[in-house]
Recover the amino acids of this structure.
C-alpha cells in the first residue's frame, strides 16, 4: 500500500465529534520488572516459569521493560496523538499477596503514569484486572473460590483511594471469559487448571468480583467517573440454519456471552446454560443476593473483538463404552464436548491464524445495541498480529495490519452511522509484547519492539493511525445519531 493509498483511506473515515481514540496494553504483557517495588509472583509468573506452558519458555520478566521506560512510552502516545490510553494495574505490584495494605512504591508507578498522561492531554483508562492474579490467592483457591471476589473488591478500593482523583474511566475485569475458561477449563492460560466445574465457579466469582468492585468504586469515586466491564463477546455464526447448528450457536453464545451479559444486565443466569451444565455443577455457588451485586449499573461496556466464531453441531457424539467415561481433551467450553465443532472460518488470516472478518464486528455491535439500546459501548481492543520485522533501513512495513485496522474501523463507522452508540476505539496494541501462551512470537504492536535492545520503532500502521486521529480531531464527521439519555445507578 502506498502513502497515497493511506491518505485516501484516512480521509474517508470521519467519526462524530468527541469520539475517543486510544491504544491498549496490559501490565504483565509490557511492564517486566516483576521483582521490583515489592511485587510478588502472579499466576502468570508461575505459569510462564513452568516448562512447556508458554511457547519458547518466554516469560514476562522483562517484557517491553515498560516499568522502566514509561516516560518514553508516554512520549510515543503523545506522538500518535491519541486522546485516551487504556492500561492495566498489576495487582501483585500494588498489593503483594492479594491481601492487606497497598505498597506505595507500586502505586507510585501508576501515579506517575497517570500524571504523565494527564500532562500530555491523554485520558487514562484504567483496568484493574488483566489476568495477573497474585499467586497466593490462587494457592488459596483462585477464582473458583468465593473469597477471591471479596479480595478483588478490597484491591479495587486500594487503587481507587490512590488514583480516584485523576482517573476518569475505570474497568473492573478484562475478558473474564479467558480468566475462567482458558485459566480453569482448557488450561491454556494461567493458572493452567483443567476442571470444567471450577471454570463455571470461576466465571460466577469473576462476575461477583466485578459487582463488588463496582459497589466499592461508586462509593469512592467522583460522580463523573465512568465504570465499565470489558468482555470478549463472541460473534457466533452457525455453519447452517439447521436446528442442530442453531443449537450449537445457542450453546456457545450462552458460555461466551450470556454467562456475563445476563447476570450483569438482567440479574439472572441463562436457564439453558444451567441446564446444559447440570451434569457438571448444580450452580449452588450462586448465593442469595449475588445477582443484585453483579447487576449494579455500569456506564459503558467495553468490547474486545478480533474475529468471529463459526460453529456446527458435532458430526457424531463419541461412542461411550457403558460405565467408562469418554476421554475428552480439556475444553474451554464445558458441557459442549461432543456436541459442538468449531470451524476455521473464511478469509485471509492473521499470524494468530484468526480470520480477518470485520463483518462480525458490525453484526455484534448491532445486536448488542438492539438488546441493550441504552448502553454506551466502546471498542476496548481490536488489532492483529503479523510477522513484522525491521528492514535494513530500520523501517517496519505492515500493510496487512493497516488493511485489518481500516476494515475494522470502517465496521465501527458503519455501526455508528446506523445508530449504535459506540463512544471510542482502542487499538490493541501500542507495543509488541508478551502474547500470553504465544510469548514473544506474535507481534500485535503498532510500535515495533526489538526485545534485545528494547528499541521502539513506529510501524507504518502507527503513522497511519496517527494520521487518521489527526484528521478526525481537526475535522470530525457528523454528530452521532441522538441516543436516549444515559442513566446510571
Ligand atoms: C485479548 C487480550 C489481550 C491480547 C489480545 C490479543 O484476548 O485481552 O491481552 O492478548 O487478546
Amino acid at each position: 500500500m502506498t502513502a497515497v493509498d493511506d491518505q485516501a483511506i484516512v480521509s474517508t473515515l470521519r467519526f462524530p465529534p468527541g469520539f475517543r481514540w486510544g491504544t491498549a496494553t496490559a501490565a504483565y504483557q509490557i511492564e517486566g520488572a516483576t521483582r521490583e517495588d515489592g511485587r510478588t509472583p502472579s499466576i502468570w509468573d508461575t505459569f510462564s516459569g513452568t516448562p512447556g506452558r508458554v511457547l519458547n519458555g518466554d516469560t514476562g520478566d522483562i517484557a517491553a521493560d515498560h516499568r522502566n521506560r514509561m516516560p518514553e512510552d508516554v512520549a510515543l502516545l503523545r506522538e500518535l496523538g491519541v486522546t485516551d490510553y487504556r492500561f492495566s494495574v498489576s495487582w501483585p505490584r500494588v498489593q503483594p499477596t492479594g491481601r492487606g495494605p497497598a505498597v506505595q512504591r507500586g502505586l507510585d508507578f501508576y501515579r506517575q503514569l497517570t500524571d504523565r498522561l494527564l500532562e500530555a492531554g491523554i485520558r487514562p483508562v484504567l483496568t484493574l484486572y488483566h489476568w495477573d492474579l497474585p499467586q497466593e490467592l490462587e494457592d488459596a483457591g483462585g477464582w473458583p473460590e468465593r473469597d477471591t471476589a471479596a479480595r478483588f473488591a478490597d484491591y479495587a478500593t486500594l487503587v481507587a483511594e490512590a488514583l480516584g482523583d485523576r482517573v476518569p474511566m475505570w474497568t473492573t475485569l478484562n475478558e473474564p471469559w479467558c480468566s475462567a475458561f482458558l485459566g480453569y477449563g482448557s488450561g491454556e492460560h494461567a493458572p493452567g487448571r483443567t476442571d470444567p466445574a471450577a471454570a463455571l465457579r470461576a466465571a460466577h466469582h469473576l462476575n461477583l468480583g466485578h459487582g463488588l468492585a463496582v459497589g466499592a468504586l461508586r462509593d469512592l469515586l467522583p460522580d463523573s467517573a465512568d465504570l465499565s466491564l470489558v468482555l470478549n463477546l463472541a460473534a457466533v455464526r452457525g455453519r447452517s440454519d439447521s436446528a442442530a447448528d442453531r443449537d450449537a450457536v445457542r450453546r456457545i453464545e450462552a458460555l461466551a456471552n450470556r454467562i456475563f451479559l445476563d447476570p450483569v444486565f438482567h440479574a439472572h443466569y441463562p436457564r439453558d446454560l444451567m441446564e446444559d451444565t447440570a451434569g457438571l455443577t448444580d450452580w449452588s455457588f450462586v448465593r442469595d443476593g449475588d445477582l443484585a451485586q453483579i447487576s449494579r449499573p455500569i456506564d459503558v461496556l467495553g468490547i474486545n473483538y478480533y474475529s468471529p466464531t463459526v460453529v456446527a453441531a458435532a458430526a457424531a457424539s463419541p461412542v461411550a463404552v457403558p460405565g467408562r467415561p469418554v476421554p475428552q481433551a480439556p475444553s474451554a467450553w464445558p458441557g459442549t464436548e461432543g456436541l459442538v465443532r468449531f470451524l476455521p472460518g473464511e478469509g485471509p488470516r492473521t499470524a494468530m491464524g484468526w480470520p480477518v472478518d470485520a463483518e462480525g464486528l458490525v453484526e455484534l455491535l448491532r445486536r448488542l445495541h438492539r438488546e441493550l439500546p441504552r448502553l454506551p459501548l466502546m471498542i476496548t481492543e481490536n488489532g492483529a498480529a503479523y510477522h513484522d520485522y525491521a528492514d535494513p533501513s530500520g523501517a517496519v512495513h505492515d500493510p496487512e495490519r493497516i488493511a485489518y485496522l481500516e476494515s475494522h474501523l470502517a465496521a465501527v463507522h458503519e455501526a455508528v452511522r446506523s445508530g449504535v452508540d459506540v463512544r471510542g476505539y482502542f487499538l490493541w496494541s501500542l507495543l509488541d509484547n508478551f502474547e500470553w501462551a504465544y510469548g514473544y512470537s506474535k507481534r500485535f504492536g503498532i510500535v515495533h519492539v526489538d526485545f534485545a535492545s528494547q528499541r521502539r520503532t513506529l510501524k507504518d500502521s502507527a503513522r497511519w493511525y496517527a494520521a487518521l486521529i489527526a484528521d478526525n480531531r481537526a475535522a470530525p464527521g457528523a454528530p452521532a445519531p441522538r441516543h436516549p439519555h444515559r442513566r446510571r445507578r
In short: The mean pLDDT is 95. The chain is about 40% helix and 15% strand.
